[in-house]
Amino acid sequence: MHPSGPNLPRAYQKISSLLAEKLDLAHTLHLLTLKAAVFAAAGKPEKGLSIAVRAASRAERAGMVPVLLEALAALAEILNKIGEFGASRDLAEAALPQVRFRALVSLTFFTLFPLA
What is the pTM of this model? Predict the structure, then answer.
C-alpha cells in the first residue's frame, strides 16, 4: 500500500492527538520528527521540511543531542527526497561526529544512506 493511502491521515491524526497532550520537550520533539517523517514517507517531503527544521532547532537549543540527531536524520531524508543531495550529505557529515554510541552510528548511517 502506498504511504499516502489511508494510513497517512491515521498516522497524522495520531501524532497530532499526542502532540495536543502535555508532554515533556523530548517527547514533543520526537513526535514532531515523526510527523516530518510521515510526510516524507507519504511523498510530501516539502510539508515535513519546516517541521524537521523546527524540531532540530529546538533540540539544539535544549541541548538534547539524541533528539537533535533524530531530527537531523529526518531532515537529511527529506532533503534527499526533494533532490538536495549535496545538502543532505553535508548535513550527515556534520551530524555523524556527534554520534558517540555504535548503535546510534549504525542507525544514523542506515537512516541517512539506505541500501534500497
Answer: 0.73
